User: Which sequence fits this backbone?
């Protein structure tokens, strides 16, 4: 009696899993063509390059944030870490005259340390991630401002500036800036890591059900420290991108950017209750927000429209997600 | 009593009737031409395997979902509930397996939640209190006071509050869904007394349970559902339990508790004076290869705490745990490495609902699924598929989320994890609670094969420590049994020296196991 329905159920299931995977991508195209219908300039090579460029800062940090959100956590300190990293990098170059590469590694290390601090506070003191990272959001921002004496630090022109800038004519063959390529490369590596390694699976397990993970011998605390440390590191790298983009270390930059990063992850299918999320999705989520912003600008629409539309997209993304989850009933 | 019933309400006229109910979900037919009726003053049992349609039928009855076809009558009048509250107001109350109370509100507030009597926008506290008082008198329990918060009550009393909710509003049909699965023997007896009283007061009771002994004990009639259809509705007096089981599974399960000859070998788990934070105190026993040892006792006696302490999930206050060559308390991760696996009594701990079957089954050992220790889903799926076939797990694929499986199949996934890991010692906490007969039979088979060493080629016999509140099961599958009473573990006895009566006396502290 069950033979026929069972077969149908599989195809039903497959159809949904297809939508799960490519839903955010579909949304990206919808948004893109919506704006293209108003103003075809958005589809020009130039506009595309600018949009990729503007996605990188949020996108790189979103890779780390995806890990945190999959593990059922949250990192509100990302924006502050980005600012700190940009300040540290600029300082190391300007005041210590260090090689740009060393300075860049210093900035990323600052991010790693902040992330480790988040992870250790959360696991050792058994505090809620929301509260801990709300605290470090302020602490890290304070340290960044203290180091920079509250003014932007001009680091001068180095090859770092080219990391996230429009390509010069002789390097148009690269299609997108080196920083964007770095983001793509890291995204592929981390996506593979999540899917094909033990630690990657453990992150999903911790986020899906911490008790089960513990019962199965997963070192839950170590996994958590890892994801926050990784998130800090990616935020640090994102800070480097910010420095490159603005050519200065800005202690007051990236304020509130953590919300945009979290939004990118959520639009991309991440669930704040954990166990779900994808790197590709998060990057697409970040891209969607850039397209909206650029589209509105090209059409000369005011900023408040941009903000309102972004908000609507976030809510629609969550509603679709909800619908997807209730499909079982 | 019959004299009180007036002419327009003859005894045999059903209070509630469901006629020709059909319901389908997508391509699956959940209910097919179901007829079901309950008379006043009757306890009507509804039994069937998980997935047989009991839950769907009750969802329709309580207004959670609508039937595709068919009609319902309440006291002879058409009955079409819009939602659970509407059903309740019309006189049909359900006591859910998972209690649906608000922990931070009081007994009184919970009982009247959503239907506070209001006049001109003000809550009428007097009337509220009177109604609650009346309901509490019916339930007749000294500890149950209107102003206690729900979170301060034990589960058994929370259930009474849930029943009280239906009484307050004057429900005449009460539906109990697996009410005894988390109750101790004592609480079960009290519940049965309450149900008997309801019956005397001419209320109609629908009783859903997997425990056929209970069904036999308190019901007047039984309706058996299988694959969405009614197999039969009969008077219970004339029906044997084995007959009910046969109707439920569609075949006879002859040998529910298989017993391949087991060769008792060397000790693998030795416990000396083990004490947890509160419970257990001073537990002593030795578990050997080829042995299935049962731990009997009431809920709250400290059995679960002992198992968790051994596995490293709960703290050990004192005493010694020796597993093979390893001494002392440890963490779950180390226990797995030492060849010990645990099955939690709580399925929400045992399985991660949003993870797929393959990840759930292999979470304790994500190794050997590809080069460089990579976990390749294809290899992982192939290994998992082997267990799916072996344990007859009903699912679409290894990539399906376990949340979508039935309880019995979920439990099979949880136990397959231990087998896939290749453990030597299984710690099982209520391995068959709340699952259907066919799944139970499969799990008994697994335990027997594991202990007798017939599970796989060249496998040494394993050792099993199993907690169960279901006595026939313990006696059926174990070689040895010990009883825990208020944190103290009795001497370990061979199953031949024991019967249900002795276990019961020891579990309730009336007689120690000698």
Assistant:
């Amino acid at each position: 009696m069950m033979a026929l329905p069972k077969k149908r159920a599989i195809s039903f299931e497959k159809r949904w899993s297809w939508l799960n995977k490519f839903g955010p991508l579909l949304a990206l195209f919808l948004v893109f063509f919506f704006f293209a219908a108003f103003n075809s300039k958005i589809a020009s090579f130039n506009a595309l390059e600018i949009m990729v460029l503007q996605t990188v800062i949020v996108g790189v940090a979103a890779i780390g944030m995806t890990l945190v959100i999959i593990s059922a956590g949250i990192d509100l300190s990302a924006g502050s870490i980005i600012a700190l990293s940009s300040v540290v990098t600029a300082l190391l170059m300007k005041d210590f005259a260090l090689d740009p590469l060393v300075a860049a590694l210093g900035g990323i290390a600052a991010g790693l340390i902040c992330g480790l601090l988040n992870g250790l506070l959360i696991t050792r003191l058994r505090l809620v991630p929301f509260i801990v990272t709300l605290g470090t959001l302020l602490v890290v921002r304070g340290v960044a401002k203290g180091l920079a004496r509250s003014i932007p630090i001009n680091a001068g022109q180095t090859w770092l500036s080219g990391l996230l800038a429009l390509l010069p004519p002789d390097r148009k063959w690269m299609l997108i800036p080196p920083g964007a390529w770095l983001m793509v490369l890291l995204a592929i590596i981390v996506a593979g890591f999540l899917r094909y390694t033990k630690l990657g699976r453990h992150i999903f397990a911790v986020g899906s059900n911490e008790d089960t993970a513990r019962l199965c011998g997963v070192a839950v605390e170590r996994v958590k420290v890892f994801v926050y440390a990784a998130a800090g590191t990616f935020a640090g790298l994102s800070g480097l991108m910010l420095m490159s983009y603005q050519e200065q270390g800005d202690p007051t930059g990236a304020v509130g950017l953590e919300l945009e990063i979290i939004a990118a992850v959520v639009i991309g299918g991440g669930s704040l209750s954990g166990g779900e999320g994808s790197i590709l999705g998060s990057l697409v989520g970040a891209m969607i927000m850039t397209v909206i912003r650029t589209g509105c600008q090209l059409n000369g629409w005011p900023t408040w429209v941009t903000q309102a539309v972004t908000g609507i997209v976030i809510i629609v993304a969550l509603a679709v997600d909800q619908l997807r989850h209730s499909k079982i009933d | 009593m019959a004299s009180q019933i007036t002419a327009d309400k003859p005894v045999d006229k059903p209070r509630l009737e469901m006629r020709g109910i059909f319901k389908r979900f997508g391509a699956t037919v959940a209910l097919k031409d179901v007829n079901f009726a309950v008379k006043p003053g009757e306890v009507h049992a509804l039994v069937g395997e998980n997935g047989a349609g009991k839950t769907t039928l009750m969802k329709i009855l309580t207004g959670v979902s609508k039937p595709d076809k068919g009609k319902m009558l309440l006291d002879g009048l058409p009955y079409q509930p819009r939602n659970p509250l509407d059903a309740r107001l019309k006189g049909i109350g359900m006591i859910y397996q998972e209690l649906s109370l608000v922990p931070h509100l009081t007994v009184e507030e919970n009982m009247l939640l959503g239907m506070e009597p209001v006049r001109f926008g003000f809550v009428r506290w007097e009337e509220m209190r009177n109604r609650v008082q009346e309901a509490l008198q019916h339930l007749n329990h000294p500890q149950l006071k209107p102003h206690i918060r729900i979170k301060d009550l034990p589960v058994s009393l929370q259930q009474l509050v849930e029943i009280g909710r239906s009484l307050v509003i004057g429900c005449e049909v009460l539906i109990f869904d697996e009410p005894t699965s988390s109750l101790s023997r004592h609480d079960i007896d009290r519940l049965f007394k309450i149900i008997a009283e309801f019956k005397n007061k001419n209320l109609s009771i629908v009783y859903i349970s997997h425990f056929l002994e209970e069904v036999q004990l308190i019901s007047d009639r039984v309706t058996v559902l299988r694959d969405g259809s009614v197999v039969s509705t009969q008077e219970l007096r004339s029906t044997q339990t084995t007959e009910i089981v046969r109707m439920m599974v569609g075949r006879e399960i002859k040998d529910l508790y298989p017993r391949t000859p087991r060769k008792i070998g060397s000790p693998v788990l030795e416990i000396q004076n083990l004490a947890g934070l509160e419970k257990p105190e001073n537990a002593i026993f030795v578990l050997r290869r080829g042995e299935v040892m049962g731990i009997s006792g009431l809920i709250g006696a400290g059995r679960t705490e002992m198992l968790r302490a051994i596995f490293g999930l709960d703290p050990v206050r004192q005493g010694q745990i020796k597993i093979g060559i390893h001494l002392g308390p440890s963490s779950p991760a180390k226990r797995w490495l030492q060849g010990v696996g645990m099955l939690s009594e709580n399925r929400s701990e045992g399985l991660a609902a949003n993870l797929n079957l393959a990840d759930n089954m292999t979470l304790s050992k994500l190794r050997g699924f590809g080069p460089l220790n990579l976990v390749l889903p294809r290899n992982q799926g192939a290994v998992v598929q082997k267990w799916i076939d072996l344990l007859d797990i009903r699912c679409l694929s290894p990539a399906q989320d376990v949340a979508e499986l039935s309880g019995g199949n979920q439990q099979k996934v949880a136990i397959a994890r231990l087998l896939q890991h290749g453990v030597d010692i299984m710690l099982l906490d209520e391995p068959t609670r709340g699952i259907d007969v066919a799944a139970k039979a499969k799990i008994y088979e697994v335990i027997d094969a594991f202990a007798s060493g017939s599970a796989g080629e060249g496998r040494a016999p394993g050792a099993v420590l199993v907690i169960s509140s279901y006595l026939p099961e313990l006696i059926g599958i174990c070689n040895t049994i010990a009883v825990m009473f208020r944190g103290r573990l009795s001497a370990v006895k061979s199953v031949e020296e024991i019967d249900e009566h002795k276990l019961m006396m020891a579990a309730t502290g009336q007689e120690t196991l000698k």
Remarks:
- The CA atoms of residues 46 and 83 of chain A lie 28 Å apart.
- The first helix of chain A runs from residue 3 to 38.
- The first strand of chain A starts at residue 153 and ends at 154.
